[in-house]
Amino acid sequence: MRPRLPSYDHFSVAVGVFVGGCLLALASLVGLPLEEPLGGVALVVALAVWTLLAQVPERVNAMLARRLHVVVGVLSCAPMVVLAANRLVGRLDSSPPLADPSPWVPLGIGVGGVVVAAVGEHRYATHCYETEGIHAIVTTTPRARWRQFLSSLVWGTLGYALVTFALDTASLFGLAAFGVLHAVLNPPSAKDLVVLDSGLLIRDDEDSGGSLTPWRRIRGVDVVDGTLRVRRGLPFPRTYRCDFSEHEEAKRVADAIRRCRRRT
């Protein structure tokens, strides 16, 4: 096999940076000084991983199909969960926790793993869109601003609690202000729902990879007065609504989704 020059693939670059960052995190945990030689080694490792993944794109797509990028994202959050549990024990018990290390290393690992999972999902969704049959494409109705505000507030609160485990009134007001600002500056937008063989592709527009929801996570689909409703299950439940001028058109899309669900 002739070696390939690495292209700027977001997933390969993210995995390389993540592996190099984990090397630096491991070095800091064992007490090694983060000097220039170690940083150079981490950079070489990141470039090597990037180049290696560019040689086997088919195997990378096969790993993405097995959802290994999701496993990386989940496992990378484990150090942050352990740190939060350690601080919780310190609060519930009169004795101090075993240790209270800086949250920046586990936070960096967690954020890096989530980025790998996100860009891996985009690459897998793009691959499925280019290789599978397309049965229908519809545009959703944007959700209400208060839903977006509530979502921003909930996720911001959970993230803050996980990092610091010290919620107070001032912090809650700050998170509420962030939720309002996010809802104002980023108004809810319509999304495209693409019905594929393996799942429902959800994307912002034709240029974005989006994310692919397997059919087993689609909990139901129904049509009410020309409005198509598609319910997605855990871990991120949501109901997508699509308005049609004719009831038969909505029913046709619903039937296409039901046929794909039955085949899986």
From TrEMBL:
PROSITE patterns: PROKAR_LIPOPROTEIN. This is Uncharacterized protein. The keyword Transmembrane helix applies. Keywords: Membrane, Transmembrane, Transmembrane helix. The chain crosses the membrane at residues 12-32, 38-56, 68-89, 101-120, 153-181. The lineage of its organism: Archaea, Methanobacteriati, Methanobacteriota, Stenosarchaea group, Halobacteria.
